[in-house]
Amino acid sequence: MSPRTDRAPRRRLDEATRRAMILAAAGAAFDEAPYARVSVSAVAAAAEASEALAYRYFGTKADLYAAVLRARLEDLADRRHAAVAALPANTSARDRVAAVLAIELGHAAAHPLTWAAPFLSGNEPPEALVVRREARAIDEQELRTLLRPAEGARYTYALWGWFGFVDGACLHWVQAGCPQDERWPLVEAALGALQGALGDWGALG
């Protein structure tokens, strides 16, 4: 039997470029379908790479998913920092938090399936939980830096409770299709919840 000649030759790319292409293809795949329905072979094909190469770079499907999450959450953190840094020095604590929330909602709207996955039972591997826990700890510390609340267990519980409120409200918004006309009411509700949890905005930041 003669060898096939109808296959396009695979491009020779350096490791960093090929890895980035696989990661991008995986991100697109996980945005389109739940974790369980995405195959590494399909991701590799979309990235014009072999399945073996995808496993070589990322180890397992779960590790590939975790790598997608880590890259996105790091990018999200960078965009939050940039948004706050762009504000005037005398910006109120309330408006700084509002800027952060706007970035967070934009991220959820761009990746609704992967954003909502941790709240839907069985939709993520354990490796993803590790990444999300690390990111949430950083989020909490950044919020403390942003607000500079008083020390004490009362404020620690208030901050963690507020994250729970935002998660629940944002999940409702995402499942409703991320309606644009409800974006600002969601931000306002989250700001009100934080003020209620911590006290007067004037005492913060």
From TrEMBL:
GO molecular function, one term: DNA-binding transcription factor activity
Keyword annotations of the record: DNA-binding, Transcription, Transcription regulation
One Pfam short name: TetR_N
Keyword Transcription appears in the UniProt entry: yes
Keyword Lipoprotein among record annotations: no
Gene3D superfamilies xrefs: Tetracycline Repressor, domain 2
InterPro entries xref list: Homeodomain-like_sf, HTH-type_TetR-like_transc_reg, HTH_TetR
Top-rank lineage group of the source organism: Bacteria
Domain HTH tetR-type: 16-76
DNA-binding region per UniProt: 39-58
Name of the featured protein: DNA-binding transcriptional regulator, AcrR family
Organism: Raineyella antarctica
